[in-house]
Structures are given as structure tokens and as C-alpha cells.
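In response to a reviewer's request, we include the raw inputs and outputs for one of the modeled complexes. The two entities were modeled together in a single run.
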Amino acid sequence: MRTPLRPLARILNARAKGENPDLIERENLARRHEAMGERNQTRAAARLGLLAAAFGAFYLTIGVRMGHLAASEPMEPVASARGAEIVAQRADITDRNGRILATNMTTHALYAHPKDMVDPKGTAQKLAAIFPELDAAALERRFTDGRSFVWIRKVLSPEQLQLVHEIGDPGLLFGPREMRLYPNGTLAAHVLGGYAFGAEGVHSAEVIGTAGVEKALDVRLRDPAQGGEPLTLSLDLTVQATVEEVLGAGITMLNARGGAAILMDVRSGEILALASAPTFDPNDRPVPLVSRDAEPSDSPLFNRAVQGLYELGSTFKIFAVAQAMQLGLVNPQTMVDANAPMIWGKHKIKEFEGHNYGPLLSVTDVIAKSSNVGTAHIALMIGGLRQQAFLKSLGFFEPTPIELVEAPGARPLIPKKWPDIVTITTSYGHGMSASPLHLATAYAAIANGGIYVKPTLLKQTGQAQGTRVMSEEVAADSRRMLRRVVTDGTASLGDVPGYEVAGKTGTADKPKKTGGYYKDKVINTFASMFPASNPRYVLIVTLDEAVDSSGPKPKRTAGWTSVPVAAEMIRRVAPILGLRPQLELGDETTLTAANN
Amino acid sequence: MRPVLYVLTFLGLIALGFWAYRENYATQSALREVRGLQSEIANLREALSVQRAEWAYLNRPDRLRELSTLNFDRLGLLPMEPEQFGAAAQVAYPVPEIPAITGPVDAMGQISAVEDTAADQAEAIVAQTGQEGL
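The model returned the following C-alpha cells for the whole complex.
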């Protein structure tokens, strides 16, 4: 109830008493102000309280949420239905057309807790019956010597898993495993390499590559960021299988110790097939040889195409000739001294079987007849320094940059000093050793119009970048000479109708470990390219101690051994690669389309 | 007026509570379903990778080569060879179909001394019957 400031009754009363009525008014006013102040104060206090409560609740919410996040187990948000990627541990490896070369498979490992075992002796015997490689007595000893954990097998097949289940001993336990599977068996074994288990636990084990691409690109294959994305190699499964089949047949027929073949696309540097025989099964990789006097090449694990360093013989002659043409020292028709034997200091340079193609031979015939003396004279014109520089530009002084873990270890064997005699011997492929892959890369440079392209095992897209090592004309002239070798030279068995094979044979005596050379052990190489007029592919075939014993006298030269093998390979592989056989127009026979 | 508003608000509150309750359980069942589907996807993916491996194993070149050798009688498969490439010009044109002669054919003129080839006769017939057809 509002009190008036000047209540009439009191004012009249005060006036009657002679007091100042204004005092009453002031008193009332003061009282009213006091009440208003009190009201305002309580309201402000309530507002402050409310604000504090709001802030308190806010901070409490955040605090509780933070505490909850810190204390609880982290987990995927279940509600987000993404692609639900279950990524395999290790990426697949496929060929260039996406066919699988290596993949993963889930299986089980077998381990035991001997303390939980009911019947250690019987279990050991039953296990030994399932797995022939286990020894019952040794297993029983391990079960009973007081240890609490025993690994029994790293992988089990489903049938074996069932058999172990049927033993029914509570001490036998299974752990999930992801194992590597090479479904094609021995195919491309040297490229793929093999796998092993790294750190092993009960619930999982690390799969690591032990050789080949598996080891060289281990990081890429295990990269979770690229998980599931298969690694595409440049190999073609069909071509690789055909090359291996023909190489194997050739080795059997020619009684060779081993062999290697490389098929390379000259434009991109992609390796379409890389085979080395004898081979192995990467699913069950054999143990490397350990005995000291064993040659590494005795092991099937040895990759002859990449690791094998051989004196590649006369296949080198074309490099000396190409360089001499590049330097303008000779042209294909220049006559050079080829009078054999050639005496250089205390060395005597002879031709094969003591021939003499001299006194003068055109440069083309030096290649076609494979004249050591002719090449030696050309090499002397070039000189050692320039020869080294040229061979270096073709990659002969460095290990091949291919994506195999074995490649960096295969450094070519180069003489330390380079006197003239080395210049001479190197020109026809003796004195320095390189791998067949080096040779393939260098021939690819000639085939590719003089542009050196790095060899690779990974599928390439787009134009390959290369460096020019010789002019296009020199490369074309060299190819014409190599074609002459096949049409009327040492590699006449290498002619495949329709595919214009060009190439050069090379037969090198095998060096003895003790120094010197074997008389009857040779390495035969045929380096070829096809089709010669516009080469697409380079094929190198190397055979170790091959001999054609069909005639009265055993024939060991490349012309009788690697060349027919390479020819058969080209005949089989070129159609698969989609190369249409070209009509080789002779001098007179011209076909016209008039007679439809 | 005011009591009606109160009642309506209260009823709305009950309805919302009921809705939230149902949504909660619907969400939980959806999450369970997602979990089930995800584990099913994982299983299927594993099965897929096993089947891919098996496909590759069954199609390995060694086995296919053996199979084609075993079944040579039926399939007659040989390795691909250069001779198998053909040119488009080698493909024969389809033989022109000669329509059946339905009605009698009148031919007038002299039999010339020149020997007509069988092909010419056929052509003549074609021409004639073609005209009749028109």
C-alpha cells in the first residue's frame, strides 16, 4: 500500500501545532527511497546468483565431459557408417593387368600351454603323426620340461587345423595369422622373393619381405596409408609364364646349368618378364646355402638375371662400334684392320676358332662376323677414357636401379686400372663383368633411338624420361648391323619370320676361381631386339654351360644355344604382346592387294 | 484460458518424452545393426580375399597349360602363334543369297554361241526375279 508523501491528516495536524509540514514529506520520501533500494538490492543479488549458477553448470558440464573423455576407453564412433575398411596387413602384388602375384590369407598358428595339457606324451605323438617334420620325442621333452609356452607351427592348413582340433587337448591353442600366398607357385619367384614372420605374438604376427620386391618395397607394402591398394608390377603374367616355360625347355634340351631371360619394353624401361632358372617356390623358400666353397649361383635363390655378373662376351662389340660412329670415327662402310691374330704387347688377340676375317673388314661385317680384332682396333681408336665414359652412360659402372633388394649388391666388376689391353678386351666383352639386366638396359638404349631409360619393375604411366646417349642415326645404324647379324651372321637361327629380330651373340669362357678361364665352360648370351625397324622390346637370354650335342662335335657357341631359345621365346611371346607379324618385303617380291 | 494452456503443455511434454524414449531405442537398435553389418562386411571381405587367392591359384599358368593339354581332344587349344594373325582382307564377304524361284521364269532371246558361266546365269536369274519381285 502506497503511502502518500503529504498525508492530509498529518499535515493539518502539524499545521495546527505550528510545525513544518515539509518535514513530514521528507520523512515519507526517505522511507520510500529506502524500500526501493532494498528491492533493487535483492533483485541484483538474485541475478548474480543466477548468472553464477549458469556459469557453474556450464563449467561443470565441460569438466565432466573432459573427465569422461580422459577416463574412458577411446573407440570408433559406431554410428558413422563409413566404408568400414578392414585393411589387410600387407598390400597385394599384381601383374600389370591386375592378376594376383602375391596376396594374403588368414590361417592359424599352433601353440601350446604345456601346463594345461592333459596328456603331453600322447599329444606329442599325435602331433608328430599329423606333421611329419615334428619329432615326437623332442616335442614331448619340450612339453614336459616345465616351460609354460611352446610354439608348434607358424601356419596350419584348414585340414591340419581340423586334425589338431580332433586331438582335443586343452593345452593346444590356435592364434590367428595372416600369411602371404603366392598362388602362381614358382612363377616370377626371383622377382617376388619371399616372406617371413617378423615379431610374433599369439594374436598376430608381422609379415615381412625377405627378398626381391617384397623386401625392396617392404615399407610401401606395409604402409597403412596405402593399405589395400595393390602394388602393380610391370610384369605380364602370361608373358612371364611363357618365357619361363621356353627357358626351362631350352635349359633341359641344352643341358645347361642354368639360365636367365629378360624381356624389357624399350620405351618405358618396364620389365615384362624376368626369369632365372633354376627357380624355387616362394611359398616355401629354401634356405640359402651356407657352405663356404659353394658358389652362390648353385642356389636356386640366386637371381642370374640381376645378381649374376658375367663377362658378357661379344654382345659388347656393338657398344664400341656405336661409340665410334657417334664420335664420327667410322661409318658402317669404313674398312678396319681385322688381321688376326693381333699382337698387343705380350697379348695375342685371336678370333673364334683361329679364323682370320682380315686383312680388312667393313664395320658392319665386324659385327656380323663378330670379329674380335676388328673391334679391338675400333676400341683403340676411341681410347680408354672415352670408352669408360660411354659405358658409364649406359649404366655399366653402377648397380642396376631396379626395385629388387638384390640389385644394389650386384655391382659390376670393373678393372681398377684401364690400360689399352683392358680397352681392347672390354670392347669384346671380356675383363669386365655385368649382369644380363645391365646388358638389357644398354641394348634398350640402342633400341629406343639412343635414349637410355632406367629399367623398372613397376608399371609406368606416361612417357618415360631418359637421357640421350647416342644420336638417333647412330642407333638406327647399330640396329641395322644387329639385324645383319641375324640375317647373315652368327645368329641366323634367331630369325623369326615376321618379327625382324636383330641382335648379337656373345660366348664368353667362364673364369676359374683360381684365375684363368675354363676351356669347355661357357656363358652364352643372345641380346636381341624386335622388330628391328621400330624396336619395341629387348630380349636377353643367357645360358650357363649350355651345349648343343646333337651334332658330331658339341657346339657351345651362343649361335647354337641361346639364339634358338631366344627365337622360340620371341615366336611365342610376340603374339601375346599383340605384335602383328610384319611382312618383310624382300627385294623383288612385292605383294599387292589387287587380287581380292 | 490458463489451465487449458497448462494441460496442453503437460500433454506435449508427455508426448515429447515418449518420442525421445522411442528414438533412443531406435538409435540403439540401429547401432546394433551397424555393428552386425560391419562384422558381416569384414567377414565377406575376408572371404573375398580368400576367393581371389583361390581364383588366382586355380588360374595359375601351370595348371591351365596342363588342363589345355589334357583336354586337347575337345578344345584343341594351342599356344598363340604369329601365324594366327590375319588381315581384314582375308575375311570372306558373305555369299549373296539367291532368292527362291517361286513362279515360272520367262526367258526370251537367242542362245548365243558364247559359253555362259554358271555365275552369269545365276546373276541373270537374280536380276529377273528381282524385277518380278518389284
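As requested, we also summarize the result in words. Chain B touches chain A through 32 residues (CB under 8 Å). The longest helix of chain B spans residues 2-58.
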